[in-house]
Amino acid sequence: MSHAAFSRRHWLAASSGLLAAAALRSPNACAQVVAGPAEPAAEPDGGDSSAPTYGEAKSFDWQFGMKLSTPVTFTAGLGTFPIPMDWPEQTVTLASRDVSGPVTQLQTRDLQGGARQAVVGIARMTAHQSLDVLLNVRIDKRNIIAPTQTDSLVIPKRVPREMRAYLGNSPMIDATHGKIRLLSRELAAEAVDDTSAWQTVRRIYDRVREQVTYTEGPIRNASDALQDGKGDCEDMTSLFVALCRNANIPARMVWIPGHCYPEFYLEEQAGGEASGHWYPCQAAGTEQFGEMQEDRPILQKGDRFKIPEQRQIVRYVSEYFRCDRSGQASPSVKFVSEMQHSD
């Protein structure tokens, strides 16, 4: 049995280098971002000035896939790799597929929580054969513009079942750790009676950026970044998410090539009915709160995924390959994540 789940940091770091002038290259998952000038705000649909709005779309052609060759015969081959999906700020269109070799299955599946995978099945592949599965996609990406009015936003009183995962622990986001709960209580004690939900999240954001110095290193729990006072974009994002969840504010991680950032969820109360929105912020890098000036595609949103081929819950959906092989040699698998062209 050949069986491998590929490193999340390998995937993100490899992807980050392919975006010329989009980010500073980092050997780890985190490339700090220098944002360009903010775009002028557009009028929100339906007059809801508390909702995020979006700038003009920029188009990028990307290729995702896998290339495989084998020195030995194998059976029951299965490869998976993440591919982008639609979000309010992103539209993904499959332009073409380049498939060669003994592929017996090619489909996509959505994982609960905000990720999509391509699934490649290979019933049998003989020694010295090769295989390519390449998906060419057009990604239209829009910058997110901060709301103009935030006073009416509130912390949700009732969270839908599908969003409850954004209130608890996730891998490396130990929201119930004693040190994180202690800081959460300190932040709550600093609030005054008229503190808005937006100001509550802003206080969390400022504290994370004040208390944790950006330092590249191996991934750690959010509580470790808090205790040591240093961490990279993943650590800082995890800590922000953990503190939001302690304040009953749904929050999640957003993954892009070479970087990640958090989103938080607040609701607008209007006529007795609540409608909610996700708002981004930049935990590490240039300050951005409630907005996001970012051209890189969203690979996935979330930090708690159950993948059918893996027993453990994972925070990021990475590439994967397995097969039943004869002999000691192993197939060679190269996963592809490359920007081809931008308009």
Automatic annotation (TrEMBL):
Family annotation (Gene3D superfamilies): 3.10.620.30
Low complexity compositional bias, start-end: 35-48
Residue span, Transglutaminase-like domain: 225-285
InterPro entries: Papain-like_cys_pep_sf (IPR038765), TAT_signal (IPR006311), Transglutaminase-like (IPR002931)
SMART domains on file: TGc
Signal peptide interval: 1-31
Sequence segments annotated as region (Disordered): 35-54
Alphabetical UniProt keywords: Signal
The protein's name in its UniProt record: Transglutaminase-like superfamily protein
